[in-house]
Structure formats: C-alpha cells, structure tokens
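U., I forgot to send this yesterday:
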Amino acid sequence: MARILIADDDELIAELASEALIDVGHACGWVTTGEEAWEVAHRRRPDLLLLDQDLPGMSGVTLLRKLRGSPQFYDLPVVMFTGMHGARDEEQAIYAGAQDFIRKPFDPAYMVSRIARVLAKRASRPAHMDLKTNVLREAGLLRDRTAGPRRVV
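Result:
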C-alpha cells in the first residue's frame, strides 16, 4: 500500500483516479492546485505524486521542478497526469524529472498498472534520505551503520 497524492484541478478526474487506486489498496487524497500539493507534501510526504501538468497558479511542471530542487523531495516519484497530447509536453515533463506520463482521458486499469510499475522501481531503492546524507553516502564519506560492530584482533 502506498500513500498517493493526486494534484488535479478537475475534481471528477481526481475522484475517479483516487477510487481506482483505493480499490487496489492505496491510500489517496487529492488537491486542486500546485500550492496545495506542496503544502500537503510537507505535512505528510506521499509515496507518489500523480500531478496534472496544467494546474491553475503554479503549473505541474513548475511544481515538479520545485520538488526536484528540494532536498526533501528530490527523489519523490512523480507521474504526470495530463490532458495535453503533444510529444513536447511529455518530453518537458520527463526532462523536468517525472518518472512517467499518463494522458487523459485515462483507462483506470492502465493508470493503476503504470503507477504500480513506478512504485515497484522505487521499492528496490533505499528509503528516502535527505539530499545531503544521500550525497555523502554515494561519495563513500558516510559510514554504513548497518554493518556489524568492528572487532579488533
């Protein structure tokens, strides 16, 4: 079960997506603006964000760039969810850091399977850690605390 936040200004679409995800065992909630998505994510980090590309106020791509620039959300899985149909829109979303792209109108089973794929990829990675800790670990400068105690012989 994953906690999924849906950011879409069309409440009917958000409700349909939420119901499909709840039916397969996920916990879902939705907001209608990018600003609300940012605030909700700070209160309780979701496991995945289903993000409409064309939100009022802060657009989905702007929010995605903000997330990728944030030490707290740089690794949050994001699936763009949009009615835009141009290849350029998809390229822009992927370039900005989205893991996948789902076009509306959508087939609920297709959406669920795409989200399951993104979550499965994420499951093999370690749990979220802040950006500074991750950089230090990747550089080999952070001692691995999972190793057993050292013995001096």
